[in-house]
Amino acid sequence: MQTVKNIPQPGSPLWHIPIALGIQAICTLPFIHHLTPAIIILAALPGQLWCFAREQAQAEYNYIQLHGGLRANMPGYEGLLFWKWNAHSIRETAFALVAGLAATGLLLKFA
Q1: Which secondary structure element, helix H or strand E, spans residue 55, and what is its range?
Q2: Alpha carbon of 23 to those of 2, 52, 109: distances in Å?
Q3: What is the value of pTM for the model shown?
Q4: Please, is 63 exposed, middle or buried when counting C-beta atoms within 10 Å of its C-beta (0-12, 13-18, 19+)?
């Protein structure tokens, strides 16, 4: 399979950015004619939460694999301990959060 250069590929830390911004855009579009700061901020949350939830689930899968393969062996909060995530997961989430905050800041400035 041939990959296209300059487009983030799955596995790249930049892959979450277009997904998070796309979710943010989809949540913003219904309110495009009456944007308020509250709507802009609330519309940004689903995209950012998607990134965090994906990596949280990934951390849970990793924990389950490392500790016997049973979900029952895992504390309920284990996936939320982001400081235990691997570097790739932290980097992906951080890049998406920064991009989402930048997009939100631009919308707040020009709305």
Answers
A1: helix 37-66
A2: 27, 13, 20
A3: 0.79
A4: middle
CA-to-CA distance for 97 and 82, rounded, in angstroms?
A: 14
Structure confidence at residue 15 as a pLDDT band (50, 70, 90): confident
CA distance 24 to 30: 11
Closest C-alpha to 52, from 10, 105, 44, 107: 44
Q: Which amino acid is at 105?
A: G
pLDDT at res. 6: 57
The span from the CA of 58 to the CA of 34, in Å, is 37
- The CA distances from residue 46 to 10, 41, 64, 66, 86, in Å, are 20, 10, 26, 30, 23
Domain spans in the chain, listed from the N-terminal domain onward: 41-110
Q: What is the largest CA-CA distance in the chain?
A: 53
Tens digits of residue pLDDT in 52-76: 999 999 899 988 888 888 888 888 8
